[in-house]
Design brief:
Layout lengths: L13 E8 L2 E8 L13 E6 L4 E8 L16 E4 L10 E6 L2 E2 L2 E2 L13 E6 L4 E13 L15 E12 L4 E15 L1
Parallel strand pairs: 4-5, 6-11
Antiparallel strand pairs: 1-2, 3-4, 3-9, 5-6, 7-8, 9-10, 10-12, 11-12
Length: about 190
């Protein structure tokens, strides 16, 4: 198994330029811009743990369905990670969804609406590393909406959990809204 490829890092230095002055040359320091560190690349998540809800479940890698929306897990008791996006802990918004179930038939995310701000979320990666997150917000959006920042591939590392909520439409077998749980990256360990 090959390790990561290392790239040289430019060390910022200053250039001194001489400019004539009354008492001799004046030295002006012009700093080079500080290079942006390369993004952290993490292994795929394999488990999601939510201690406050006593939840510890497998994570399936997902893409999009035939309509172009994020797919849902095949196993009703697993959650699904949007694989084209960042892995939890990488820059951007890692997105994980799960089934809430049907009225009277709860599934893996049936208790997600009970989560509190400040709760811990842990993504366990295939290499055994763990990315920790802290819940910062809980919101409900119409099912056909596009919340800003959802699926972002840049910006600070964060995690969004999604499940269904609101009124259930038995004819179309869907819920009117989506529950979003937003969490900020709290480190690895």
């Amino acid at each position: 198994m090959a390790g990561p490829t290392l790239h040289p890092v430019e060390i910022p230095v200053a250039i001194a330029t001489a400019q004539p002055g009354r008492d001799g040359p004046v030295v002006e320091h012009v700093p080079f811009p500080t290079p942006t560190p390369p993004p952290v690349i993490l292994a795929a998540p394999t488990r999601l743990q939510i201690p406050s809800l006593a939840l510890d479940t497998a994570v399936e890698a997902l893409g999009v369905d035939s309509t172009g929306a994020m797919d849902t897990p095949r196993n009703l008791w697993d959650v699904g990670w949007f694989q084209p996006g960042p892995s939890p802990g990488e820059r951007g918004d890692a997105v994980i969804d799960g089934h809430v179930g049907l009225p009277g038939y709860p599934l893996i995310f049936s208790t997600l609406a009970r989560i509190s701000t400040g709760a811990d979320l842990i993504a366990v990666h295939a290499d055994g590393t763990r990315s920790h997150f802290t819940v910062t917000g809980i919101s409900s959006w119409p099912a056909d909406s596009h919340p800003p920042g959802l699926f972002a591939t840049d910006g600070p590392a964060r995690l969004t959990l999604i499940t269904c909520t609101g009124s259930y439409d038995g004819n179309n077998q869907t819920y009117a809204n989506r529950l979003l749980v937003d969490a900020t990256y709290a480190g690895s360990g």
